[in-house]
Amino acid sequence: MQATTYFFIFLNLSLVLFEEPAVYPLPFLATSLIEVLCLLVFSVRLMHFAKVTPRNVFWKDTKNICVMVAILMSLTDLAIFGALRIYNVRSVRWSRIVRPIFLINFAESRQIRRAFRSIRNTFPEITYVFLLFMFSVLMFSLMALKLFGERNLQTAEGLPYFTNYLEIVFDLYVLVTTANSPDVMMPAFDFSWWYALFFITYVIINTYIFMSVFLAVVYNNYRKHLKVLYGEVHS
User: What is the distance between the alpha carbons of residues 81 and 67, in angstroms, rounded to a whole number?
Assistant: First the structure.
């Protein structure tokens, strides 16, 4: 029963690789039949669980309610999408985002729920570090606008360089990953090599310091909450 549940959860999650838009899309009828089969298996599994569980315990368990709501939402969305498709009306399968609920909320996924709770409990504690990091990016973006915005510099494609604040924020945010390094710096460096100091300072503060602190906070808090959950289980 556990292996069967995991198989159909995996099959249901894998449908996103073959539903439009996809590189190798399957016909809508094929993917919809597979999804209906998966939802049928989930419903049978839920009914089986309800048979061996006291009624008051079953209906008080939010995991079972979440699974039932996800099944109803998926069936409703599938019916609406199919009806609109008959009349050649384009729509979006919005229920795809609820499919991971089946992976998390079935009784067999105890370890996944434990990890999910640890991630959820970690979020509030890393918010402050993330906000501080974003404040640093915004301030450096403002400095970049003042330094380069009025010098009529151009990128390699001939576009204005660092004249739009939001575009600067995005470019510097990407620079934290070093994905656009050193291309984002080259127009300023060609104008004067002294401007390279601005980008070097930015990378040192945000990539090497803030990212290290961010990683440490995430790791320590996730580990702390995971230990608390394991302690509750074994106590």
Answer: 21
